[in-house]
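Hi R.,

Here are the chain sequences for the assembly we discussed:
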Amino acid sequence: MDFLSNVTLGLQVAASPENLLFCFLGVLLGTLVGTLPGIGALAGVSLLLPVTFYVEPTTALVMLAGIYYGVTYGGSTAAILLNLPGSSAAAVTCLDGYPMAQQGRAGVALFMTTIASFVGGTFAIILLMVFTPVLARVGLSFGPAEYASLVVLGLIAASTISSGSPVRGIAMVVLGLLIGTVGSDFETGRLRFTFGYLEVAEGISFVAIAMGLFGVSEVLNNIGVANRTTTVSKDEYSWRKLYPNREDWRASWGPMWRGSVLGSAFGILPGTGASIASFIAYAFEKRWSRDPDRFGKGAIEGVVAPETANNAAAQAAFIPTLSLGIPGDAVMALMLGALIIHGITPGPQVVTNHPELFWGLVMSFWIGNIFLVILHLPLIGVWVRILLVPYKYLYPSMLFFICIGVYSVNNSPFDVLLVLLFGMLGYAMLKLDLPAAPLLLGVVLSPILENNLRRAMLISSGDPMTFVERPISAGFLVAAVLVLLMSLRSFRRNKRLADGLSVEPD
Amino acid sequence: MQLFSVNPLQALSSAALFAVGAGAAFVGASRYGLGEIFHLGAGAFPFLLGLLLMALSLVMLVAGFAPPPQPNRRQWLGALAVFCAIAVFGLSLDTLGLVPAVFALVLISRLAEPPFEPAGTFGLAAGLSALAYFVFVFGLRMPLEAFTWP
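And here is the predicted structure of the full complex:
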């Protein structure tokens, strides 16, 4: 395939006025969501899913992706200025970012995070351009058995590696798979688990599930928490105070490269996203440093490394999602859901059948990253003031956008009540320590898994050994078992550690 | 030290998941049809998932469990207010109209985070109603009316 002509095609698509506008809107909203503590990437993307119904699939993905990486840019602002991570991927940025702010170097920290995010993003986009088509070509040779095993591997990795308890993560995946079977069976057309409601004959609205699980329960989780009023002075963010000195630059190049590589690697792997990448990059940088004592006291490397890594991971996460149709985390599952809504089946055929979508999206990442730099450097003062929006006005507005947004999808008040149902489920799950992200992954991948499972059984004339006799499929299953054993082991170790450290008598 | 202890919340989530799994497996097998091994029916996948969920819920009983912080009285009431707000919005959108529904949503949900502050809350409700009307009804032509009462 001609790489250059694809890039040109992508640029043409991404630079169309409509895509430029929605790319800008996406990164703007992403920055807003990332800056505001109390709304993360998941809630932000869920809230804005309905907008995608009004535009082309490419434009929709351009905007949703813009929100996603915009959040990783914006999350650092609250982390540095208030010691409050605006998103979980920015949590480590607090460690050195906040001390820098206390030393009067907040401007430098904010400037360098913007540059670092840009470098990390750029690195991962290049990987995305090179590896996605290659992986997709490999994926095209998979039969139903391979595909079913790959989905199993993806689900197990995504639900066990980063969750507190592997068993609970897998249980939620299975529950999600079950919820995904609601509606008519693809082969026989038989209605399953609809309880007489024709509104769910086409399956439960995926937007309602995402908004209930991530939007409503995020609001509930922040209610009654201590007020976060704050005072930030405006004049600290003048251009002069932003600009880093030569020493800051020199200290930052190394962490940027290492952060890019680490972040991309963790972004590609299922189950490890931007948050883990930023933690690892920070720990790595601290170990690498000749003077680890400076970390935690305002070392610029401690800000640059995690911020490069989390943005690289955010972009690299698209590699498995776009090449194989296997989402590594819940936000990627939302992207796949948006594709499915537009009638595009996720999988390796997307890159070849919809080149305008893939290359347009990738090229929009460049544009979006440039928008973000422009949005951040001169306008940091504006974002700082956004932190001052009181939560008491923020959360009713969030609920408003959730309710009106989900209604607008099908013009159906029934979907609003579904949001209520899933909001209640999400809240109960939160209080029972059951993770919500694996459930969403299960819902999205359920039809793909069932479809391939049944086709594989048909092809092998009912021999379940087909999944272990075909070498590639067997490889995926062995990998799934290994991931499971590894996460069980580390879970046990962490638990023993926690038990040993706890001083409270039982 | 005990071999393991079962927290009541842990027991609750296990029991709920076991029940869902058992229900799905039973309905899948008895109503939707398992089909043949070489041609799986509509019930086979839910049946398998149901069995798996039952097994996992039992494993969860003996796995470690760190109960997350439980809501205090104020957070409970706050959650209740938010749920009521969404329910009233969903039920009043077609019967009363967009503006009353948005006002109900904002006013009821604002109860969750006292103090209520009438001026700001009514202002927010009015602002969001206007936004909803212009963007969704006027702009996107959603089949809604500002007021539908007679």
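Chain B has a mean pLDDT of 86. The longest helix of chain B spans residues 8-32.

Let me know if anything looks off.

Best,
T.
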